[in-house]
Amino acid sequence: MNPLHKVSPKKAALTVLVLLTLFILTGFFILPPILKSVMVDKLSEQLHRPVSIEKVKVNPFILSVEISGLTIGEPSGRKTFVSLGNLYLNLQSISLIKGGPVLRELRLDKPYIHIVRNQDQSYNFSYLMKPGEKKPPSKPFLFSLSNIQILNGGIDFEDIPKGANHTVRDLKLMVPMISNFPHFVDTFVQPGFEATVNGTPIVLKGRTKPFKDSLETSLQISVKDLDIPHYLAYLPVK
């Protein structure tokens, strides 16, 4: 007799119920604190800065992760370097067969960064930009991101040598989709950017092919009374 025929419908239903319960408990209750602990430890180790996260939520049914209250402090811990009100990621199951992450949505709410230019012209993030060990070229990391939204962003820039402070408020970036999968390389990425820089509104719209050899790009910039050469002098690289 086939062993499968010995399993009664009642036992099969009970097995499915147990597995579903374990899936729910793991996704909603066990995985979030583990992710939170690992992220705090790894980020603190890599950035050499204090890191805290208020809450992590996972929905295993729709493959989403939500991170709330992320704060990265300065090494002294007295000021905030980077903070994030909320980060929402919604992964698609097709990622398993595409060879790279495919996100249905990526949303950042209230991101903030505090930038400092020191007296020696270095920045409070300069050490993060040091070139690492050269490795042999490898296959590109494939990805596809849709519905990218950065909302209510802010930047405070402290220029110690000049004794000046600059602000960016109401920063908003919208990108319908960006992907480096081969069949998307020839598709235009169409970003939309808005912000208020030191009280001056800036609007930027355009389209580009960032992964195409031609790098075909066109931009439409709306700005008034902004001293662009003045701000270019702040670039941390030549």
Secondary-structure map with pairings?
Layout (H helix, E strand, L loop, with lengths): L8 H39 L3 E2 L2 E5 L4 E10 L6 E12 L3 H4 L3 E16 L26 E16 L4 E16 L12 E6 L2 E9 L8 E7 L4 H5 L6
Parallel strand pairs: 5-6
Antiparallel strand pairs: 1-3, 2-3, 3-4, 4-5, 6-7, 7-8, 8-9, 9-10
Task: Name the assembly state.
Answer: single chain
User: Please, what is the average pLDDT?
Assistant: 88
Shape label: globular
Major sheet, described briefly? 10 strands, mixed
Question: Could you tell me the radius of gyration in angstroms?
Answer: 23 Å
Q: Give a count of the beta strands, DSSP E runs of length 2 or more.
A: 10
Order of helices and strands: HEEEEHEEEEEEH
Total helical segments: 3
Structural class: alpha+beta
What is the terminal-to-terminal distance? Answer: 77 Å
- The percent of residues in helical segments reads 10-25%
Low-confidence runs: none
Walk me through the structure:
Strand 2 and strand 3 form a beta hairpin. The protein is built from 3 helices and 10 strands. The N and C termini lie far apart (77 Å). The model has no long low-confidence stretch (mean pLDDT 88). It has helices at residues 9-47, 95-98, 228-232; strands at 51-52, 55-59, 64-73, 80-91, 102-117, 144-159, 164-179, 192-197, 200-208, 217-223. The protein is globular and about 80 Å long. Strands 1, 2, 3, 4, 5, 6, 7, 8, 9 and 10 form a 10-stranded mixed beta sheet that branches. With 238 residues, the protein is of the alpha+beta class.
